[in-house]
Write a structure and sequence with these properties.
The protein has 147 residues and is mostly beta strands. It has a single domain, classed as Immunoglobulin-like (Sandwich). Strands 1, 3, 5, 6, 9, 10 and 11 form a 7-stranded antiparallel sheet that branches. It has a 4-stranded antiparallel sheet with strand order 2-4-8-7, with no helix packed on it. It contains no helices and 11 strands. The relative contact order is 0.27. This is T-cell receptor alpha/delta variable 40.0. Pfam families: V-set (PF07686). Residues 1-19 form the signal peptide.
Length: 147
């Protein structure tokens, strides 16, 4: 009997591009979650400005970035599982209430609706098959292009 169990491996990769003064994801490099569990992705920034607006985007392989929500939005109109939490100044969390394999993408935390400054977070998925108590990984890999 073969049981399929989906695991999500979230790899946070850093790509700083110039301008807020600095935007970067949190420092955890790997988050392993089972499908259906909540996930929190953090983005920190530095700015002399009192008012900064950050946006979250999702980009699938070979696709265009898709707007999810900005820091003042409570819940994404694209996907209600996505919401923003601001635990402190210069820190914005993207919370996914129930992780799904369809979340495997590049997530971008960006200043304004531009590519001037952003951090990218790459969500990669790994499907694990459990066969008679033996774990046999079956990785689905894809190449991602820097933005």
């Amino acid at each position: 009997m073969k049981i399929r169990q989906n695991k999500l491996i979230l790899c946070l990769m850093f790509a700083d591009v110039m301008a807020v003064d600095k935007i970067e994801p949190n420092r955890r490099t790997n988050i392993i979650k089972t499908e259906g569990e909540p996930v929190t992705l953090s983005c920190s920034y530095e700015s002399d400005s009192e008012y900064v607006r950050l946006y979250w985007y999702r980009q699938y392989h070979n696709g265009e970035p898709q707007y999810l929500l900005h820091q003042e939005a409570e819940v994404s109109k694209i996907d209600p599982r996505f919401c923003v939490n601001i635990p402190e100044r210069e820190h914005v969390d993207l919370e996914i209430s129930s992780a799904a394999v369809s979340d495997c993408s590049v997530l971008l935390c960006s200043e304004a609706h531009s590519d001037r400054k952003h951090s990218q977070i790459i969500l990669m998925c790994n499907t694990v098959y459990i066969v008679h108590s033996h774990v046999v990984p079956a990785c689905s890999k894809f190449s991602l292009h820097s933005i």
